[in-house]
Amino acid sequence: MQDKNDDRVVFTFDSIVVPGGNPEVLAVNLARQFYQQMRKQDFDQKQVLRVATELVSCLTASLEEYRKKIMR
User: Would you tell me the crossing angle of helices 23-40 and 45-71 to the nearest 10 degrees?
Assistant: First the structure.
C-alpha cells in the first residue's frame, strides 16, 4: 500500500478535459475526479462543501459581471 505522503500526483485539468469532447460528459467527469481527489487528500465533508460553495460564489460573481456588462 502506498503511503499517503507519497501520493502527491493529482489529476490535471488537461488529463480530464480534452478538446472536442462532449461538454456535459466532461463536466460530470471533472466534478467526479475533483471530488475523488479531495477525498483522497483527506478533505472532510465540510471542506468539500466549502469548495463547492466557493465554486458557486465564483459562478455567481461571473454571472453578475456579465449581467452588468449587457445592461450597459
Answer: 140
Q: What is the pLDDT of residues 30-43, one digit of tens each?
A: 899 889 989 999 99
d(CA 48, CA 55): 11
Residues in the chain: 72
Whole-model pTM: value is: 0.66
Which of 25-35 are b and which e, b meaning 16 or more Cβ less than 10 Å from the residue's Cβ?
eeeeeeeebbe
Q: Answer for the pair 54, 34: CB distance below 8 angstroms, yes or no.
A: no
Q: Give me 15's grid cell.
A: 488529463
pLDDT for residue 1 is more than 50: no
CA-based radius of gyration for the chain? 16
Residue type, position 49, single letter: L
